[in-house]
Amino acid sequence: xxxxxxxxxxxxxxxxxxxxxxxxxxxxxxxxxxxxxxxxxxxxxxxxxxxxxxxxxxxxxxxxxxxxxxxxxxxxxxxxxxxxxxxxxxxxxxxxxxxxxxxxxxxxxxxxxxxxxxxxxxxxxxxxxxxxxxxxxxxxxxxxxxxxxxxxxxxxxxxxxxxxxxxxxxxxxxxxxxxxxxxxxxxxxxxxxxxxxxxxxxxxxxxxxxxxxxxxxxxxxxxxxxxxxxxxxxxxxxxxxxxxxxxxxxxxxxxxxxxxxxxxxxxxxxxxxxxxxxxxxxxxxxxxxxxxxxxxxxxxxxxxxxxxxxxxxxxxxxxxxxxxxxxxxxxxxxxxxxxxxxxxxxxxxxxxxxxxxxxxxxx
Length: 363
Description:
Blueprint: E1 2-3, H1 10-24, H2 38-54, H3 57-69, H4 94-101, H5 104-118, E2 122-124, E3 127-128, E4 138-140, H6 143-158, H7 161-178, E5 189-191, H8 211-225, H9 233-250, E6 259-260, E7 273-274, H10 275-291, H11 299-311, E8 314-316, E9 319-321, E10 325-326, H12 334-338, E11 342-343, H13 347-362
Antiparallel strand pairs: 1-8, 2-3, 4-5, 6-7, 8-9, 10-11
Helix pairs in contact: 1-2, 1-13, 2-3, 2-13, 4-5, 6-7, 6-8, 8-9, 8-10, 9-10, 10-11, 10-13
Protein backbone atom coordinates (compact mmCIF):
# COMPACT_ATOMS: atom_id res chain seq x y z
CA UNK A 1 0.00 0.00 0.00
CA UNK A 2 1.22 3.47 -0.87
CA UNK A 3 0.03 6.73 0.60
CA UNK A 4 -1.16 9.36 -1.88
CA UNK A 5 1.36 12.05 -2.69
CA UNK A 6 0.68 14.48 -5.56
CA UNK A 7 -2.79 16.01 -5.46
CA UNK A 8 -4.98 15.25 -8.48
CA UNK A 9 -8.31 16.84 -9.42
CA UNK A 10 -11.27 16.02 -7.15
CA UNK A 11 -13.05 14.34 -10.07
CA UNK A 12 -10.03 12.04 -10.52
CA UNK A 13 -10.51 10.74 -6.99
CA UNK A 14 -14.28 10.45 -7.38
CA UNK A 15 -13.92 8.31 -10.50
CA UNK A 16 -11.19 6.22 -8.87
CA UNK A 17 -13.50 5.59 -5.91
CA UNK A 18 -16.45 4.61 -8.11
CA UNK A 19 -14.33 2.24 -10.16
CA UNK A 20 -12.87 0.67 -7.02
CA UNK A 21 -16.33 -0.14 -5.71
CA UNK A 22 -17.62 -1.33 -9.08
CA UNK A 23 -14.78 -3.84 -9.22
CA UNK A 24 -15.48 -5.04 -5.69
CA UNK A 25 -19.26 -5.34 -5.79
CA UNK A 26 -21.75 -6.35 -8.44
CA UNK A 27 -24.67 -3.91 -8.07
CA UNK A 28 -26.91 -6.54 -6.46
CA UNK A 29 -24.20 -7.32 -3.88
CA UNK A 30 -23.80 -3.83 -2.43
CA UNK A 31 -24.04 -4.33 1.34
CA UNK A 32 -26.38 -4.98 3.02
CA UNK A 33 -27.15 -7.13 -0.04
CA UNK A 34 -30.76 -7.57 -0.99
CA UNK A 35 -32.03 -4.49 0.83
CA UNK A 36 -33.14 -1.02 -0.26
CA UNK A 37 -31.29 0.95 2.40
CA UNK A 38 -29.40 4.17 2.97
CA UNK A 39 -25.98 2.46 3.01
CA UNK A 40 -26.37 1.82 -0.70
CA UNK A 41 -28.30 5.04 -1.20
CA UNK A 42 -25.56 7.27 0.19
CA UNK A 43 -22.95 5.67 -2.05
CA UNK A 44 -25.14 5.65 -5.16
CA UNK A 45 -26.13 9.28 -4.58
CA UNK A 46 -22.43 10.13 -4.61
CA UNK A 47 -21.97 8.04 -7.74
CA UNK A 48 -24.78 9.96 -9.42
CA UNK A 49 -23.13 13.28 -8.53
CA UNK A 50 -19.97 11.89 -10.16
CA UNK A 51 -21.94 10.85 -13.24
CA UNK A 52 -23.29 14.39 -13.60
CA UNK A 53 -19.72 15.69 -13.88
CA UNK A 54 -18.12 13.03 -16.07
CA UNK A 55 -21.16 11.61 -17.96
CA UNK A 56 -19.81 8.07 -17.80
CA UNK A 57 -22.89 5.97 -18.56
CA UNK A 58 -21.43 2.97 -16.75
CA UNK A 59 -22.15 4.78 -13.47
CA UNK A 60 -25.82 5.29 -14.30
CA UNK A 61 -26.02 1.70 -15.55
CA UNK A 62 -24.64 0.52 -12.21
CA UNK A 63 -27.23 2.53 -10.27
CA UNK A 64 -30.01 1.15 -12.48
CA UNK A 65 -28.78 -2.42 -12.04
CA UNK A 66 -28.85 -2.06 -8.25
CA UNK A 67 -32.39 -0.68 -8.23
CA UNK A 68 -33.59 -3.32 -10.70
CA UNK A 69 -32.16 -6.06 -8.47
CA UNK A 70 -34.23 -4.95 -5.50
CA UNK A 71 -37.71 -4.43 -6.99
CA UNK A 72 -40.28 -6.18 -9.16
CA UNK A 73 -41.92 -4.94 -12.36
CA UNK A 74 -44.62 -3.15 -10.34
CA UNK A 75 -42.14 -1.11 -8.31
CA UNK A 76 -42.47 -3.17 -5.15
CA UNK A 77 -39.25 -3.50 -3.17
CA UNK A 78 -38.23 -6.99 -2.09
CA UNK A 79 -36.82 -5.69 1.18
CA UNK A 80 -37.44 -2.11 2.26
CA UNK A 81 -38.65 -1.10 5.70
CA UNK A 82 -40.60 2.10 5.12
CA UNK A 83 -41.13 2.41 8.87
CA UNK A 84 -37.55 3.68 8.97
CA UNK A 85 -36.50 6.99 7.42
CA UNK A 86 -33.18 5.30 6.62
CA UNK A 87 -34.93 3.16 4.01
CA UNK A 88 -36.45 6.16 2.22
CA UNK A 89 -33.13 7.85 1.39
CA UNK A 90 -32.11 5.64 -1.58
CA UNK A 91 -35.29 6.75 -3.31
CA UNK A 92 -33.26 9.79 -4.41
CA UNK A 93 -31.72 7.68 -7.18
CA UNK A 94 -35.17 6.95 -8.63
CA UNK A 95 -35.48 10.49 -10.00
CA UNK A 96 -32.70 10.19 -12.61
CA UNK A 97 -33.93 6.70 -13.54
CA UNK A 98 -37.45 8.02 -14.13
CA UNK A 99 -36.04 10.86 -16.24
CA UNK A 100 -33.61 8.72 -18.23
CA UNK A 101 -35.55 5.49 -18.77
CA UNK A 102 -39.21 6.39 -18.24
CA UNK A 103 -40.01 2.94 -16.87
CA UNK A 104 -43.27 3.16 -14.93
CA UNK A 105 -41.97 0.84 -12.20
CA UNK A 106 -39.62 3.58 -10.98
CA UNK A 107 -42.50 6.06 -10.70
CA UNK A 108 -44.57 3.46 -8.83
CA UNK A 109 -41.67 2.75 -6.47
CA UNK A 110 -41.27 6.46 -5.75
CA UNK A 111 -44.99 6.77 -5.08
CA UNK A 112 -44.77 3.88 -2.58
CA UNK A 113 -41.95 5.62 -0.72
CA UNK A 114 -43.60 9.02 -0.63
CA UNK A 115 -46.88 7.56 0.56
CA UNK A 116 -44.93 5.99 3.45
CA UNK A 117 -43.21 9.32 4.07
CA UNK A 118 -46.53 11.16 4.37
CA UNK A 119 -47.70 8.59 6.91
CA UNK A 120 -44.49 8.58 8.98
CA UNK A 121 -45.06 9.28 12.68
CA UNK A 122 -44.08 12.57 14.27
CA UNK A 123 -42.40 13.09 17.61
CA UNK A 124 -43.73 16.63 17.74
CA UNK A 125 -45.18 19.15 15.32
CA UNK A 126 -42.88 19.21 12.30
CA UNK A 127 -40.46 16.64 13.72
CA UNK A 128 -40.42 13.14 12.26
CA UNK A 129 -39.63 10.05 14.35
CA UNK A 130 -36.32 8.42 13.51
CA UNK A 131 -38.26 5.22 12.95
CA UNK A 132 -41.61 3.70 13.87
CA UNK A 133 -40.21 1.17 16.32
CA UNK A 134 -37.69 1.63 19.14
CA UNK A 135 -37.03 5.25 18.08
CA UNK A 136 -40.66 6.37 17.84
CA UNK A 137 -40.15 9.18 20.34
CA UNK A 138 -36.72 10.24 19.13
CA UNK A 139 -35.23 12.60 16.55
CA UNK A 140 -31.73 11.84 15.24
CA UNK A 141 -29.71 14.31 13.18
CA UNK A 142 -29.14 12.02 10.20
CA UNK A 143 -32.90 11.80 9.64
CA UNK A 144 -32.79 15.14 7.83
CA UNK A 145 -30.59 13.69 5.10
CA UNK A 146 -32.68 10.51 4.97
CA UNK A 147 -36.00 12.28 4.32
CA UNK A 148 -35.27 15.90 3.38
CA UNK A 149 -33.72 15.71 -0.11
CA UNK A 150 -36.18 13.12 -1.44
CA UNK A 151 -39.11 15.14 -0.12
CA UNK A 152 -37.79 18.36 -1.64
CA UNK A 153 -37.18 16.76 -5.02
CA UNK A 154 -40.60 15.14 -5.02
CA UNK A 155 -42.23 18.46 -4.15
CA UNK A 156 -40.38 20.23 -6.95
CA UNK A 157 -40.84 17.65 -9.71
CA UNK A 158 -44.42 16.59 -8.93
CA UNK A 159 -45.92 19.85 -7.63
CA UNK A 160 -46.41 18.47 -4.14
CA UNK A 161 -45.53 21.49 -1.93
CA UNK A 162 -46.56 19.70 1.26
CA UNK A 163 -43.48 17.48 0.93
CA UNK A 164 -41.16 20.47 0.85
CA UNK A 165 -42.90 21.65 4.01
CA UNK A 166 -42.17 18.27 5.64
CA UNK A 167 -38.47 18.73 4.92
CA UNK A 168 -38.27 22.38 5.97
CA UNK A 169 -40.21 21.89 9.19
CA UNK A 170 -38.10 18.88 10.14
CA UNK A 171 -34.97 20.98 9.65
CA UNK A 172 -36.36 23.65 11.95
CA UNK A 173 -37.24 21.03 14.55
CA UNK A 174 -33.73 19.59 14.50
CA UNK A 175 -32.21 22.98 15.21
CA UNK A 176 -34.84 23.77 17.81
CA UNK A 177 -34.36 20.52 19.72
CA UNK A 178 -30.64 19.71 19.37
CA UNK A 179 -28.71 23.01 19.11
CA UNK A 180 -26.10 23.82 21.73
CA UNK A 181 -25.71 27.60 22.17
CA UNK A 182 -22.21 27.31 23.63
CA UNK A 183 -20.52 25.41 20.79
CA UNK A 184 -22.98 26.12 17.98
CA UNK A 185 -23.01 22.37 17.28
CA UNK A 186 -25.88 19.87 17.27
CA UNK A 187 -26.28 16.95 19.64
CA UNK A 188 -26.68 13.55 17.96
CA UNK A 189 -30.24 12.90 19.14
CA UNK A 190 -33.18 14.01 21.25
CA UNK A 191 -35.54 11.75 23.20
CA UNK A 192 -38.87 13.46 23.82
CA UNK A 193 -39.67 11.05 26.65
CA UNK A 194 -36.24 11.51 28.29
CA UNK A 195 -36.11 7.78 29.00
CA UNK A 196 -33.14 6.48 27.02
CA UNK A 197 -29.88 5.71 28.81
CA UNK A 198 -28.15 8.29 26.65
CA UNK A 199 -30.73 11.06 27.23
CA UNK A 200 -30.31 13.88 29.71
CA UNK A 201 -33.08 13.58 32.27
CA UNK A 202 -34.02 17.26 31.93
CA UNK A 203 -33.47 18.03 28.24
CA UNK A 204 -33.74 14.60 26.58
CA UNK A 205 -30.56 15.39 24.64
CA UNK A 206 -27.73 12.99 23.99
CA UNK A 207 -24.34 13.83 25.49
CA UNK A 208 -21.95 14.32 22.58
CA UNK A 209 -21.44 15.94 19.18
CA UNK A 210 -20.83 12.99 16.86
CA UNK A 211 -19.20 14.07 13.61
CA UNK A 212 -21.06 12.15 10.92
CA UNK A 213 -24.47 12.81 12.44
CA UNK A 214 -23.78 16.55 12.33
CA UNK A 215 -22.38 16.24 8.79
CA UNK A 216 -25.64 14.95 7.35
CA UNK A 217 -27.48 18.08 8.47
CA UNK A 218 -25.80 20.71 6.24
CA UNK A 219 -25.71 18.26 3.33
CA UNK A 220 -29.42 17.59 3.77
CA UNK A 221 -30.17 21.30 4.09
CA UNK A 222 -28.26 22.15 0.92
CA UNK A 223 -30.11 19.47 -1.03
CA UNK A 224 -33.44 20.77 0.28
CA UNK A 225 -32.53 24.39 -0.48
CA UNK A 226 -31.57 23.42 -4.03
CA UNK A 227 -35.27 22.81 -4.70
CA UNK A 228 -36.50 26.02 -3.03
CA UNK A 229 -37.27 29.52 -4.21
CA UNK A 230 -34.20 31.48 -3.14
CA UNK A 231 -36.37 34.53 -2.49
CA UNK A 232 -38.59 32.70 0.00
CA UNK A 233 -38.57 33.42 3.72
CA UNK A 234 -37.79 29.78 4.53
CA UNK A 235 -34.77 29.80 2.22
CA UNK A 236 -33.41 32.82 4.05
CA UNK A 237 -33.99 31.23 7.45
CA UNK A 238 -32.34 27.95 6.44
CA UNK A 239 -29.41 29.87 4.96
CA UNK A 240 -28.80 31.64 8.26
CA UNK A 241 -29.03 28.40 10.26
CA UNK A 242 -26.68 26.69 7.82
CA UNK A 243 -24.17 29.54 7.89
CA UNK A 244 -24.03 29.61 11.69
CA UNK A 245 -23.64 25.83 11.89
CA UNK A 246 -20.81 25.70 9.35
CA UNK A 247 -18.96 28.58 10.99
CA UNK A 248 -19.17 26.68 14.29
CA UNK A 249 -17.95 23.47 12.64
CA UNK A 250 -14.96 25.29 11.15
CA UNK A 251 -13.80 26.28 14.64
CA UNK A 252 -13.06 22.62 15.33
CA UNK A 253 -11.10 21.79 12.17
CA UNK A 254 -7.77 20.16 13.02
CA UNK A 255 -4.37 21.23 11.74
CA UNK A 256 -4.49 18.10 9.59
CA UNK A 257 -7.56 19.58 7.86
CA UNK A 258 -9.95 16.88 9.03
CA UNK A 259 -12.35 16.70 11.95
CA UNK A 260 -12.55 14.44 14.98
CA UNK A 261 -15.03 11.64 15.64
CA UNK A 262 -16.35 13.66 18.60
CA UNK A 263 -16.10 17.07 17.00
CA UNK A 264 -15.34 19.37 19.93
CA UNK A 265 -12.97 17.09 21.88
CA UNK A 266 -9.93 16.76 19.65
CA UNK A 267 -7.64 17.16 22.64
CA UNK A 268 -9.29 14.43 24.74
CA UNK A 269 -7.67 11.01 24.98
CA UNK A 270 -9.18 8.35 22.75
CA UNK A 271 -10.56 10.68 20.09
CA UNK A 272 -9.47 10.28 16.46
CA UNK A 273 -9.72 11.93 13.06
CA UNK A 274 -12.69 10.48 11.16
CA UNK A 275 -12.95 10.62 7.39
CA UNK A 276 -16.68 10.44 6.71
CA UNK A 277 -17.55 13.51 8.79
CA UNK A 278 -14.51 15.30 7.36
CA UNK A 279 -15.82 14.64 3.85
CA UNK A 280 -19.34 15.83 4.69
CA UNK A 281 -18.13 19.01 6.39
CA UNK A 282 -15.80 19.76 3.49
CA UNK A 283 -18.55 19.17 0.94
CA UNK A 284 -20.98 21.42 2.81
CA UNK A 285 -18.46 24.24 3.26
CA UNK A 286 -17.55 24.05 -0.42
CA UNK A 287 -21.16 24.19 -1.56
CA UNK A 288 -22.00 27.01 0.86
CA UNK A 289 -19.10 29.08 -0.48
CA UNK A 290 -20.30 28.51 -4.04
CA UNK A 291 -23.79 29.68 -3.10
CA UNK A 292 -22.49 32.77 -1.28
CA UNK A 293 -23.84 31.53 2.07
CA UNK A 294 -20.27 31.53 3.39
CA UNK A 295 -17.86 34.21 2.22
CA UNK A 296 -14.90 33.30 0.06
CA UNK A 297 -12.49 33.18 2.99
CA UNK A 298 -13.96 29.76 3.84
CA UNK A 299 -12.71 28.35 0.56
CA UNK A 300 -9.40 27.62 2.29
CA UNK A 301 -11.22 25.65 4.99
CA UNK A 302 -12.71 23.42 2.30
CA UNK A 303 -9.37 23.02 0.54
CA UNK A 304 -7.69 22.06 3.81
CA UNK A 305 -10.39 19.50 4.52
CA UNK A 306 -10.01 18.02 1.05
CA UNK A 307 -6.23 17.82 1.37
CA UNK A 308 -6.51 16.22 4.79
CA UNK A 309 -8.74 13.43 3.50
CA UNK A 310 -6.73 12.88 0.31
CA UNK A 311 -3.48 12.69 2.27
CA UNK A 312 -4.99 9.92 4.41
CA UNK A 313 -5.77 7.69 1.42
CA UNK A 314 -3.87 4.56 0.55
CA UNK A 315 -3.91 2.42 -2.58
CA UNK A 316 -3.88 -1.28 -3.28
CA UNK A 317 -3.10 -1.73 -6.95
CA UNK A 318 -5.68 0.40 -8.79
CA UNK A 319 -8.02 0.45 -5.81
CA UNK A 320 -8.44 3.58 -3.71
CA UNK A 321 -8.77 2.86 0.02
CA UNK A 322 -10.54 5.22 2.43
CA UNK A 323 -9.86 4.23 6.02
CA UNK A 324 -10.81 5.73 9.41
CA UNK A 325 -14.53 5.49 8.65
CA UNK A 326 -16.74 4.92 11.66
CA UNK A 327 -19.17 2.07 11.09
CA UNK A 328 -22.89 2.62 11.73
CA UNK A 329 -23.43 3.91 15.25
CA UNK A 330 -26.24 4.28 17.73
CA UNK A 331 -26.38 7.08 20.28
CA UNK A 332 -24.00 6.87 23.23
CA UNK A 333 -21.43 8.55 25.44
CA UNK A 334 -17.89 9.69 24.63
CA UNK A 335 -16.37 6.23 25.09
CA UNK A 336 -19.06 4.71 22.88
CA UNK A 337 -18.15 6.91 19.91
CA UNK A 338 -14.40 6.68 20.37
CA UNK A 339 -14.49 2.90 20.71
CA UNK A 340 -16.56 2.31 17.59
CA UNK A 341 -14.87 0.07 15.01
CA UNK A 342 -13.67 1.57 11.74
CA UNK A 343 -13.93 0.21 8.25
CA UNK A 344 -12.18 0.77 4.93
CA UNK A 345 -14.37 1.78 2.00
CA UNK A 346 -17.51 1.53 4.16
CA UNK A 347 -20.41 2.84 2.06
CA UNK A 348 -21.10 5.68 4.54
CA UNK A 349 -17.59 6.98 3.99
CA UNK A 350 -17.39 6.20 0.30
CA UNK A 351 -20.62 8.07 -0.34
CA UNK A 352 -19.45 11.01 1.76
CA UNK A 353 -16.12 10.98 -0.12
CA UNK A 354 -17.91 11.21 -3.48
CA UNK A 355 -20.06 14.08 -2.23
CA UNK A 356 -16.90 15.89 -1.14
CA UNK A 357 -15.01 15.30 -4.37
CA UNK A 358 -17.89 16.41 -6.60
CA UNK A 359 -18.47 19.54 -4.51
CA UNK A 360 -14.76 20.38 -4.60
CA UNK A 361 -14.56 19.80 -8.36
CA UNK A 362 -17.06 22.61 -8.90
CA UNK A 363 -15.34 24.84 -6.31
